[in-house]
Amino acid sequence: MPVQYTENHLEKHLSRPQSDEEKTDVSVAEDDGPKVRPQDCAFGWIPTIAVCINYMFIFGASNSYGVFSTYYLTERFVGTPATTLSWIGTLITSLMLGCNIITGALADKIGYRPTAYIGTVLCTVAYILASFANQVWQLILTQGVLFGIGASFLIAPSLSIPPQWFNKYRGVANGIAVAGSSFGGLWFTAATQAMLENLGAAWALRILGILTFAITGIMNMFYYRRVPAKPRKNLFEWNATKRMTFWLISIEATAMYIGYWALTFYIGSTAKLLGGTLQDGSNLLLVLNAGSAVGRIAAGYIADKIGSINMLVISDFATVIIQMPLWMKANSLGPLYALCALYGMISPTFISINPVLVSTYFDQDVMASVMGMTNLFAGIGVLSGNLSQGRIFDLYDKRQGFTNTIIFSAMFILFSGIVVLGLRFHIIRKLPSKRFLQKV
């Protein structure tokens, strides 16, 4: 039977202490049989680190796409509109998240490891096929569509593993896991830039494909789930859609993803407009990803102390305050480096916190399914946001500046913060103690 969600689910979850039986939930090592392991046990760090390493390859491709974007815009496809080229990077992230509504449900139904291995194969094939592409539409189908779908199979179990293994340290564990995407962005960015300059695009893509196959193939073996999935008749967890909490998380994710990727995609082009080089653009992405690695771990740690929703509210509003003046008023590379460092540390908090919110307010045995459903909206946000930004850059900024693009991005991040604030009031209203300054 599907899990029934009720309006007092939250109060029960947050207000009552865990029993000894709950703390020692049965864990499943997929094919190895059941093992009794408690939350916050040392064993939970094994699958968490495996997720961290896989995130390097899942999100590393999208976080470092700015290198390919700058290369395509300024070297290989100079006459091609930015809107057209933006389809490649946009589809990587939008399909990775959007297809999660299917892959998340499959992960709960057929198991975490089989789902992850499907993703490994698809991502590898995407890289290899892209290495033989010589037209933009071919890159859109391979580096964009096929890789995005493959990444969705990898991300489905990855999102659900750290939160289910931890309770007291849930935020920091998920922050460490998600920081893998930033670490991946660091070395992906440096390695991709070096390979493009010395080996060309074809061999850069082939080498990334080989590395993805080898590393994720090994890490998938450590994808253990702590809570066994219940037998299910329905593929999707439709009962989740009856709760306001689900819709507020989904709208928040949509708005944030509409605005978030603008800096990643266009910081290299901004550097070029200010007299910088391709290497300067790559260096800025390195700083951005380094800041993200620190910020995601710190956000998880702070969220465990002050509450995940509180942390997310602070992060969203701080992002807007940082982004608009530093990017709009930049007249040299110095402010751009400051922007990337601060934006990296503060803005990606939602990537660390959203899985924690789902694991806190929804049952763990359907976590991958509910996460996939919320990520469908996030994928729509990526698709509509990135394509809109490309259009604004071409039509209103005339490819000579970024003022309108920046305003568009910042306003949606601001709206995301307002929605999170609404989520906070919604949660507090249902708690026995309705104190405004409490931890949520």
Automatic annotation (TrEMBL):
Residues 48-434 form the Major facilitator superfamily (MFS) profile domain. One of its GO terms (cellular component) is membrane. The keyword Cell division does not apply. It is a multi-pass membrane protein. It is found in: Membrane. The chain crosses the membrane at residues 42-65, 85-107, 114-133, 139-159, 171-191, 203-223, 244-263, 283-302, 309-328, 334-354, 366-385, 405-425. Residues 1-33 are annotated as: Disordered. InterPro entries: MFS (IPR011701), MFS_dom (IPR020846), MFS_trans_sf (IPR036259), Proton-linked_MCT (IPR050327). Residues 8-25 have a biased composition (Basic and acidic residues). The keyword Nuclease does not apply. Belongs to the major facilitator superfamily. Monocarboxylate porter (TC 2.A.1.13) family. PANTHER family: EG:103B4.3 PROTEIN-RELATED, MONOCARBOXYLATE TRANSPORTER. This is MFS general substrate transporter. It comes from Linderina pennispora.
